[in-house]
Amino acid sequence: MDSYFTIQNIENILYKDKASKFFGFAYSVNSEFEIKEKLELVKQLHPKATHHCYAYRLGLDKNNYRANDDGEPNGTAGKPILGQIDSFSVTNVLVIVVRYFGGTKLGVSGLIDAYKECAKMTLQSTQIIEQKVLIYYEIKCDYTSINKVYQIINNTKATIVEQQVDNQSSFLIALESNKIKDVETKLIDERIEYKFIEKK
Hints:
The chain is α+β, with helices and mostly antiparallel strands. Helix content is 32%, strand content 38%.
């Protein structure tokens, strides 16, 4: 897989149902740490809300996911939010729906519909973007090979993430997955040390 689809961040998409107000938030996230940060941010923005329900899906294989009802009846909030994430075929996405109870109960089916519709409206309001899958390599070389390393980086359109230039230099580079064979061949030909780095 050379790319995947995710979203641009969007906040405070309003949906109303029988005096209850629902606010939708959608974020592009890469880790559970980022998810916790976004949840805390939304709770600070809406501290008096009755519920802060959410769902997320992470990873290219989409196997890392969670749905949270935050006190709503089981399966009425998190699951329909997750269903909308899946219907848009996106990953590395967190959707939070904040509810202010309006005094009239919606019932199980009403809650499911409300959380589903708010999540749908939120995702429809954002922009879906294609994200290239990047592969990371650490390159090590002595001072005499630095120019060769820069040349390889430029020719393969890789990006330098970190570098330390000295008598013994090191580079952390990121490149698109379809460039792997090209950069490895050039590094081997120049007898430059490298290794694959797993980024999470």
